[in-house]
Design a protein that fits this description.
Elements (H helix, E strand, L loop, with lengths): L1 E8 L2 E6 L4 E5 L8 H11 L5 H16 L3 E5 L7 E4 L4 E9 L2 E10 L5 H31 L10 H18 L3 E8 L2 H8 L1 H18 L5 E6 L2 E7 L3 H16 L3 E3 L2 E3 L3 E7 L6 H16 L6 E4 L4
Parallel strand pairs: 1-6, 13-14
Antiparallel strand pairs: 1-2, 2-3, 4-5, 4-7, 6-7, 8-10, 8-13, 9-10, 11-12
Helix pairs in contact: 1-2, 1-3, 2-3, 5-6
Length: about 300
């Protein structure tokens, strides 16, 4: 078994064992073995900025050359580990890092041990993989930053517009339900006026943390603007969405935000709308917004639903 960590050192890549002992300095080999794959691999790996596609391209090119049965890859940007082929007993495991950028963990497995020559070849091929992966990672980070609200840590309005269209397309194609929630912090202006804008910012951050902690992986939360948030609940019928909304309302009402040496709480009003076949992005949003208006005018700290789809 071979465990190594890639770190860039003075223009090259330094291999480090799991015990943090430097093994050797690795530079891409000038000796093609075989020549065709060695020559074309860098060009092929530069054809995409999608992490999963890059790994599949790498696997397609080198599997027959190395003779392994399974490849697995884990990356911070991926919600699940990518598994190609079937896992076997003997393995080569690598932690990949370039320019202090974590670009994931890659593991190759097969039924028999890897020879020293094969490990050397694997590490030479990985030298050709790490820079395309770094480019993918930096691109994904930039893409994520463009659709992320920095204060709440949630997706922003632009991402919500895209997410809502995606849910509608999925619902039409698969006949699958989904629900939209609009959440508004009650009396937010009073929080800012009485406690200061730092307290208002803390309320926004606390909302973001709570929403991220309570939602399923298939759901998505957004800061729509100001003190207003939206949730897209995939594969969720109207009745289930109402239960989610009530759990959120209760949890937020129990939330305590630290503001200097004191703490404060707040409540929210929530509008709920379930998707119906006649909906488009504008109509389902208007229904959820109408439900929110009803919740606000029913005394706040409550939930309301638009029943147009039922």
């Amino acid at each position: 078994m071979s465990q190594h960590i890639f770190n860039e050192q003075q223009g090259g890549l330094q291999l480090v064992s799991s015990t943090n002992r430097y093994i050797d300095s690795v530079q891409p080999s000038d000796t093609p073995d075989p020549e065709l794959i060695q020559a074309r691999l860098p060009m092929i790996l530069q054809t995409s900025l999608d992490i999963v596609q890059i790994i599949h391209l790498f696997d397609h090119e080198v599997r027959a050359l190395i003779g392994y049965q399974g490849l697995s890859y884990k990356h911070p940007a991926l919600t699940e580990k990518l598994e190609i082929g079937s896992k076997r007993h003997h393995r080569c495991h690598y932690q990949l890092e370039v320019d202090q950028v974590n670009i994931g963990e890659l593991e190759l497995t097969r039924n028999k041990k890897f020879s020293a020559a094969e490990i050397e070849l694997i590490e030479d091929l990985l030298c050709k993989l790490v820079y395309p992966l770094r480019n993918c990672t930096l691109y994904q980070k930039a893409l994520s930053a463009s659709v992320t609200d920095m204060l709440s840590g949630l997706y922003n309005r632009q991402a919500f517009d895209q997410g809502l269209m995606r849910e509608i397309e999925l619902a039409k194609r698969q006949q699958a339900p989904f629900s939209l929630l609009i959440i508004d912090i009650d009396n937010f202006k009073q929080i800012n006026d009485a406690l200061g804008h730092a307290a208002g910012d803390q309320a926004i951050r606390s909302m973001g943390d709570l929403l991220k902690s309570m939602l399923r992986q298939t759901d998505s939360a957004y800061r729509f603007g100001g003190e207003e948030f939206t949730l897209l609940l995939s594969h969720t019928e109207h009745e289930d969405a109402m239960m989610v909304a009530e759990r959120l309302r209760q949890s937020i009402a129990e939330l305590k935000c630290v503001n200097g040496e004191s703490s404060f709480g707040f409540t929210v009003s929530i509008g709920v709308a379930g998707y119906c076949k006649s909906d488009n992005a504008s109509s389902i949003f208007k229904r959820a917004d109408r439900a929110l208006y009803q919740a606000k005018h029913s005394g706040k700290n409550t939930i309301s639903s638009d029943l147009a789809s039922h």
